[in-house]
Amino acid sequence: MVIEGFINPQVLSLVSRIRHTNSLVIADAAFPYWPQIETVDVSLVKGVPTVLQVVEALLANWKCGEIIMAEEFNSHNQRKHRDAFKRACRGVPMTFEPHLEFKRRVPQAIGLIRTGDTTAYGNMILISV
Question: In 3-state terms, what secondary structure has residue 32?
C-alpha cells in the first residue's frame, strides 16, 4: 500500500509513465477535454483541488525541467496570485507563451490532470528532465 506521495491510482499510473522530456498538463476545471490524451479528473467541487495543490504534490517527487503557462496568466491575475504560482514551482524555469500556442502543445502531452481550480489561465504544462 502506498503511504507517501500520490494515493490516487490513476494519477500514480499516469505520472509513473512520464519519462525524459515528456510533458504533463495540470489544468483547471474549465479546460477542454482532449480525446488524444489520457485525462485524470481529480476535481471534487469548484476550487478543490487547486492547480497549485497538484503541482506542489507532484514536484515533491518528480523531476521537472520547465513549466509552460499562457502569458495571459500574468495579465489576468494579481501579483499575489502570480507569486504563489512561482513559489509552487520551486525554482523550475517558467516560460510564458500565448494561450493559443499553449493549447497547441497539449496533444503532445502524456496526459492531463484536471483540477477544480478556477484561476484564469492557471493551466500548466510540466516538462520532465
Answer: coil
Helices (H) and strands (E) in the chain, counts: 5, 6
What's CA 101's distance to the chain center, in Å? 16
Residue with cell 480525446: 35
Of the candidates 20, 76, 81, 99, the residue annotated as catalytic is: 20
Say what angle helices 51-59 and 79-88 make with each other, to 10 degrees: 20
Tally of CA atoms within 13 A in the half-sphere of 80 that contains its CB: 0
Which amino acid makes up residue 92?
V
Instruction: Please give the single-letter amino acid code of residue 18.
Output: I
20 carries an active-site annotation = yes
Quote the CA–CA distance of 125 and 107 in Å, as a whole number. 11
Single-letter amino acid code for the residue at 110: I
Q: What is the pLDDT of residues 76-106, one digit of tens each?
A: 999 999 999 999 999 999 999 999 999 999 9
What is the spatial distance between Cα 84 and Cα 114, in angstroms, rounded to a whole number? 19
**CB neighbourhood size of 16 (10 A):** 10
